[in-house]
């Protein structure tokens, strides 16, 4: 053995991280105060045998598809949906409430699992941060889950991009399918926020590199592969849905389905392991299935059907959340996911904060610490409407008010007052600070509500024409006065119905910040017009997307991205993730 | 629970795979004939405690960095390098020989581990197929290793692309570093063969998407992050090397290092788990470290230093391979990896086949089954030169002749005759058909050779000027008559020396198919000119790349890619991987 020569100028011990310490108030530090149970012990709480768990280290596992087939015929538990008011910069805490409620249900003796979406790397390094809850209501190991986790998003990205490569390769080798290179809908994906890739030209540099054409990258979670991954009930259905995706048009305007590119088997091979639901735990050892995470605008924004269905066969209560506010997240959860997967929620929780209601009531971010019950009454109109909407689906509702130190009794009473005539209770929750103990009253009520027979109904029947579905959502949920279909959109809806896609549900791509299509219009606007500029078919996911404005499918990074603050300390611990 | 409505047109049971069965003669089927041991049992053969293994399912694990630090001061075993003649379409079997020799050494009682590169998805779906050996000389589980394995390549890709996104984001938010958008060396990567991404324009679509500029994608294994990943001895060194990468020039021609983009901590966080060496096993349960896999043209083409160094502290013999033929792979292994990591191989095996030597001797692919000892004598000049080259490094050599049924005794004798005066033995090996039992004679000789005191020396000293290093490699290894530096390359070498990079080793990017720069010139050409068109600095990897021709850093797919034949069967088993 020779001594290494100093070819590489090593500049001494960890010069980039010496000054980096884990902030003791950070979520990472709080999460580190508990010792996670071995994942087999977590699975055992749900009666999962150890050999049904495919381990990724001591605290993460995938649930085998064989075991999922075995439990298929078991009776199912109660599904609880956690949704929220229209989001504001004041914060609501939907994920923490999902986790806190799960922990609280277990505390009061109800065998409960939670089902969450898995985080994307893009927001982690951007402005939003991670997606594993906060305070004492977190899932762990938070660093692992926020970074690569078990590799699902990478698998989805690889499957997506393999199809992209096969499309250009097909064109390169003669284009037997006669794909119109101006009409390729299938873009490429990367699991990062990277605005420079939104609009690109590929195939430059001469004949060896193919035919130049316009293209672009979406973030991986916006891929239709992700939407399908989260709706398929089996590997077989996953394959069939992937085959049916429409990726391009021919010169003669015929559709080109993904299966024509002959790579579906490879895509399924890439997705096989990822398709197994991931099992982790909350800080209080409640089993948590964290699996899949489609965009909530151009897709349905909830975790995988296979995770939710599996959890329902293993636990008496399954608490899950839907993306964005209830007008988007819950509506899609109910009209798309539940419709397609045969699920029926037994109860729903609408999450709000006094602070956020004050913002809806017109108070600025800096003034939120001042008591203002009047503003709360005003802004609670937003909450009230979301509650009414949930009731339209026939689901019992309770409101969870995530406590902040600045909240006053008068403000909390104001919220209660606004909802009194709806027969809906408000529970002040403190699971962020106290874990499941801070959400026990909420858990008791959820248990009680869920005991009632299900009255769940979707908002519209399959048979309603597509334009009618859009109008129904706009009037019933958004309280719009009108829907303005662009000529393009109207023509496309007619085309889709003629092509036999008329009985699909509609996936609305609308701003999450308002019931209207204008993100600045907070609270509870009425009489607005919902413009539908464009309509897209997600033939494999099984829905028609109606775009009401600029839809971002590739976020950008802020001027000081979170990536600047993440580090590995001298002990190999990852810090700076929030 | 409601019944799912038939929103998605499921077209019946697994219509895409019913006709798909695993070929019983395929490598996958042969691999499936053995039951792998639990990975803890494999680790125990090397004295690795179970708690030093981070499991990915029952048959894959990562070795903890804490444990690697613990064993740092242990005495080291003998390092055996497996290299090969210049490749031809007839095939050589370098990876199978590495595996077969490892198994054979264990059979004769020598505690042995093998160290291999991990496969890239691109070639798996392209023309080349997987990289886990073949026949009875395979590492398992072959499907897992060939597909996502433990996610290392995805982690490297994410770390690379995060830096790419940070560069464009920096420019977007004001470009305080004054990066010249025409001179950004840092491209993007994807782990697929996708020629359409070789040359692209990004940042189109208006101000919100940034500044349009030329860009391109390399395959992930061509990333400097991969090269660094495979040369760093610790996480700390990994971070330091990443920081030092040169990613762009400023308008004033100053260099912009990666650390200026402030994302190094995040890159290390993304790479932390991946950096732990992967442990799997051969079909005969020999421990196999399969970790890292840089390109063998613009990088050094061997598995990670951290895997090799760890294996040497756990086993008495470590068998490893280097990419391409010995003129490229072994030279870089010795002059770059061994130089930087302080390694000294105790013996080397040069792999050849009678078939391939006949091709070097001028026989066409279709005529290889006909006996032609004369052609073997002619073509063995290629083998002889590679053997002589290994001897120049002071390393004992033995030749492994991978047996094919068409080989005749006269042909094998011809090979022996050509090498007789060099004092090098030739062993006919049949590990492909018989596993380790087919390479025992080779193993005995390797053990004997490795017992001699090391005479290893690098080809050139650090202090030699860069142009001198290129000339030394060209004359000593390639037997060129001359080196023709382009004016650009000559100027760049001078610049690099002035900037203090003169003592770095040189990484030659040359065709693997010939000692010359002309891929059509088989066998043992002399007197040729090695053109150096371009010189690139890999400041983090710690070498200077000399490009002698068109270098492909993003492969394309063939007209019928392997992706068309891969599938998941009705039992969830992946087939069609080769």
From TrEMBL, chains A, B:
Q: Name one GO molecular function term.
A: ATP binding
GO terms for biological process, alphabetical = tetrahydrofolate interconversion
What does the entry list as the binding residues for ATP?
Answer: 88-95
Record's catalysed reaction(s): (6S)-5,6,7,8-tetrahydrofolate + formate + ATP = (6R)-10-formyltetrahydrofolate + ADP + phosphate
Name the enzyme's class.
ligase
Q: Which UniProt keywords apply?
A: ATP-binding, Ligase, Nucleotide-binding, One-carbon metabolism
Stated EC number for the protein is: 6.3.4.3
* Record SUPFAM superfamilies: P-loop containing nucleoside triphosphate hydrolases
Which pathway, per its entry?
A: One-carbon metabolism; tetrahydrofolate interconversion
What the record says about family reads: Belongs to the formate--tetrahydrofolate ligase family.
Q: What is this protein called?
A: Formate--tetrahydrofolate ligase
Q: Supply the source organism for this entry.
A: Azorhizobium caulinodans (strain ATCC 43989 / DSM 5975 / JCM 20966 / LMG 6465 / NBRC 14845 / NCIMB 13405 / ORS 571)
